[in-house]
Structures are given as C-alpha cells and as structure tokens.
Amino acid sequence: MVDAGRILGTVLVVLAATTVPGACGRGGPSSGGPATSTAQAGAVAQVPVVAATTAVSILSPLWGTTFAAREHGTRRLAVPLSVSGTALGRRVVVVDGGCAARRCLLKARVSATGRWFARLLLDVPSHARRWTVTARYDGEGRSVGAARVMIAVRPPSRPTPAPVLTPTTTAPPVTSTPGPATPPTGAVPDLSLPAGSVGNGALVLIGDSLSEGQRPLLEHELPGWTVRTSSRIGRPLAEGMQILAATTLPRGTVLAMGLFTNDDPWRTAELQAAVRTTLTRVGPTGCVIWATIASPPVSGQTFATANALLTKLTGADSRLQLVPWAAEVAAYPQLLAGDGVHPTPAGERIRAQLFARAAAACSA
Q1: For position 21, what pLDDT does the model report?
Q2: How far is CA 306 from CA 121, 273, 339, in A?
C-alpha cells in the first residue's frame, strides 16, 4: 500500500522550498525589485508571454517611393498603392491611407507567418506631392504598435497647348529634328538572353510579388534550362510590358508573364492588348505563358472576367499556355497566405511547378 503520510510529507517539503525568499526569477529580494508570488513566478517561467504591442511593420513600399497618380474628379488625384508588412500572426491590421475614399481604409488579416497585404486607392488633393500611410492593429489606438511610410505622388503630365495662330502670325520654322523619346523613370531590368544561349531551353519570367523567389524553384523544376526572372512588389501590368519591350528574346525562348494582380480587374482591354503583344514578341513559332489571377475583389468586382479572357485567348491560339493559378488556389486555399493574394512556401512551389509544366508543354 502507498504510505499516505510519506506523500503528505513530500508535498509539504516541496511547498516550503518554493516559498523561500530570493529564489530564482525576477522580482525577488536579491534583484532589488518588488516581490512576486510563487504562482506568478512559476507561470512566467513556464509560459513566455509575447507583448501584445509588438509593432506593426511596413516592408513595402519603401520610404519616399514615387507613385504615379491619375486625375479623379475635380482637383483630386487617385493613387493606386499596394502596402505589405509584418505583424503578430493571425491579428488584423488596419491600413489607413488618410483619406475618406472607400478603399483608403482597409483591414488586412495577418497570416500565421506574420505577413499582411492591402491594396489601397488613395484620394488626395491635386496639389499633394507627399502623402503618409499608416498601419496599426485593429481595435488599438492610432499610436499603439503603429507604423507609417511616406510616399511621393507624381501627378499626371499635361500636354503643352499648341500656339494659336492668327492671320498675322505664322508657325515658327523647324530648326532641329526631334530627339529620342525620354527614357522611363527608374532602371528597367535587362532580362535579355544572348543569341545561342537557349540550349536545352530558356524561360524569361516577368512578374509582380507573386514571382519573388521563383527563379531557384524554376531552375529546380527545369534542369538544364536558362531561367531569367524579374519581380517587384506592387508591379502593375504597364511596368511589366515596359520591361518586355526592353528585353531581347532569342528564338526558342519561352516568355512567362505573372502580372495583372495589381491592376483594376475591369481593365480587361489592357490585359488583352498585353497578351497579344507578348504573342507578337515571340513570333509565329514562339510560346507565351500567362497565369490566371487569384486576388480579393476590387471595389466589389472580382478577377473572374479577366481569368475568363485569358482562358478564351488560350483556346484561340496554340502558342499560348495557361497557368490555372486561380483554379488551383480555389481547390486548395491553404496555398495562399492570410492576405488572400500571396502564396505560402508550399504555394510558391506549386506555382513554380505549374509554370514549369507549361514551359515543358511549350517545348513539346
């Protein structure tokens, strides 16, 4: 039989040991701080507590990044802006663009890995050249764990009005030939491949943040291929097409496009024109890959129409291959992070496999 008296004696010895002043832990007399109870000390030692005010961070855009604006109403400018950062996992972050527009104040759910993403549409005065965006935890004060970033606003250019000619005046004579067009602002990545470098296969991928980190994955999926990639958080379709215009594609290069996630879903005419431009660039025997878009609705409109357009164009031209990214994440939602846009590490691998499969079909 168990000796109850021995057990009771053991318990009393343990309790006496845990109440000795100055035992391990903060707050004992030896530390010079206020004393804490045995239960509190044990809880702190066993369950580390992360402060609820761990700061929200904004990783993109960088401080001072310039964003192009378009006219919006009378003396107002609309500025599309993608913002992403880190915070405590599974919390909700309020992203505040500091204006009264519907898409100027959004809530972003933080993924389990601590990443969040929001796409704003700022409504600012026409004279604004600097603007501040903040991010904070939902339900907390504006200054608790908050982050902010200042961006530069570039207003739309206005054409110079032509001089009005009267009967007594004549147009000035042309004294010089027009110079070259002004190069675009910022460096354009050079993805050009030298002639003869295609070898066993070559892939050029132009994308947005969903294409970040894809190059090593694609090289693994396409052994022996030459792979070039260019990606940027918040990259719109127009910027990607600008990069394509500056890229030399040797015969046999597979062109892959991972764009339009950062564009308005109703601009399908621009998407269709971009697809036709890519087909023109690869020529009659070339091959182009486009990926469907998986992203939350913008102003209540989904990307279903854009995806249907890409599917239709694929069926109409054998040179066009489709990466069914939207269908893949609809079947397996766990491939997306909490923001509903960016892939998880597993999603990144699946996305690379889909692009590699399409590239292999191009070479078949």
Answers
A1: 37
A2: 20, 12, 20
The secondary element (H helix, E strand) that includes residue 149 is strand 147-154
pLDDT over 90 (residue 318): yes
Cα–Cα dist 243/263, whole Å: 17
Query: Which residues are bridge partners to 206 per DSSP?
Result: 230, 257
Nearest to residue 140, comparing CAs of 91, 209, 212? 91
Mark residue 110 as left, alpha or beta (left: phi above 0; alpha: psi -120 to 50; beta: remaining): beta
Q: What gap in Å lies between CA 110 and CA 280, rounded to an integer?
A: 41
Helix (H) or strand (E) holding 269: helix 268-282
Contact assessment for residue 115 and residue 165, using Cβ atoms and an 8 Å cutoff: no
In order of 228, 290, 318, the CA distances from 285 in angstroms are 20, 17, 10
Structure tokens at 173: 């004579």
Query: 3-state secondary structure string, 159-222?
Result: CCCCCCCCCCCCCCCCCCCCCCCCCCCCCCCCCCCCCCCCCCCEEEEEECHHHCCHHHHHHHHC
Helix (H) or strand (E) holding 133: strand 130-137
Whether residue 153 contacts residue 67, with contact meaning beta carbons closer than 8 Å, is answered with: yes
**Polymer length in residues for the chain:** 364
How far apart are alpha carbons 104 and 79 in whole angstroms?
Answer: 10
Of 80-94, 133-147, 300-314, which has the strongest mean pLDDT?
Answer: 300-314
Closest-CA residue to 352 (of 263, 271, 291): 291
